Amino acid sequence: MTHRQLFQQIMYYGDFDRMPVLHWAVWDETVERWRGEGLPAFDAADINLQGPEVHAFLGTQPLWSFLGADCGLFPLFEEEDIEVTDEYRVFRDSGGVVVKDWKGKSSIPHQIEFTLKGAEDWPQYKERLQPDPARIPANLDNHIAQCLGSGLAVVVGVGSMMGWIRNWMGVQNMSYLMYEAPDVYADMVDTIAELSCWSLNEILPIAKAAGLTPDLGFGWEDICGSSGPLVSPPLFDAYVAPGYRKIRGTLEAFGIDLLGIDSDGFVEPLLPHWLNAGVNVMFPVEPGTWGATPEHMRERFGRELRIIGGFDKLALEKNTAAIDAELESHMALMKEGGFLLLPDHFITPGTPLANYQYYLDRVRALRF
Known about the structure:
Blueprint lengths: L2 H9 L16 H8 L16 H7 L6 E3 L12 E5 L3 E5 L4 E6 L7 E5 L7 H5 L13 H11 L3 E4 L5 H18 L1 H28 L6 E5 L3 E2 L2 E2 L3 H21 L5 E5 L7 H6 L4 E4 L9 H8 L4 E3 L11 H10 L1 H6 L2 E2 L12 H13 L3
Parallel strand pairs: 1-6, 6-7, 7-10, 10-11, 11-12, 12-13
Antiparallel strand pairs: 2-3, 3-4, 4-5, 8-9
Helix pairs in contact: 6-7, 7-8, 11-13
């Protein structure tokens, strides 16, 4: 059984006897630590350790292969340095945001100033979110062939209904906009959704002709924090859900009935609303300080919600007993299906390489 076939059997509660042995990503500081603990010096550009040499060393596979168009700002804003020191760099990034980025350590850049502050600034972003043939990869046929040949599950990208907007204008500006100009916020979501659907209609017929139907559509949000979502459920239902439903309808027209999103934080308050809008795969599911578990989500939302992640990454920092206990806590859900075991986010610098390899060996040995 290929990884792709195993993925399909798990996601559709079919016949399977094991978990795929998956490796996703690590922090830069984790790489530095592991290189002192026996990790070979792979390509320095592979800062998150996701390249083929890393998977060969760890005995793992990537989560999936990716197919998609560029549905972001097009053209991007030109990057512009404002202040550069030995410790940090202040610059206007490709999203039009002035940020302060620290050198030599992993951190989220601090947002200082926004080009997109309110409704009056939206037209110059909207014009950068229009269909254009140049958005489609010039070597699309090669991408499709690589997906088919990878043996991995295949994801087709569907963009971001909320996360990109949050990145472009910041939480505060977005929050004011949702209340003061909800029609503009709705237009932002609809513009991105329409662009995503256009890209799917361009790519998926070509993929289908080559014998490929992707396994799921997948987008990025990161729209929740430790205390819950950054958009209220009623506003989500009114202005965001229609965008997801458009995308869901387009995917279903091509025989794809899984739609997933990546959102960190305490996602549970939005989950029933995502489900009602057609999203049925959640990644990564962080336990966090709020105590989320994939088991609770399955109990509350049923088998329609598929889950990826949920293994508490901090158990990897402790010892083999903690790793075994965390694995055991997810055993019943792994056997049930609709759940892919994966650490809940980037592997932290507190994790010894030996602990991570022990975790991978334990997953490799699992049989149901």
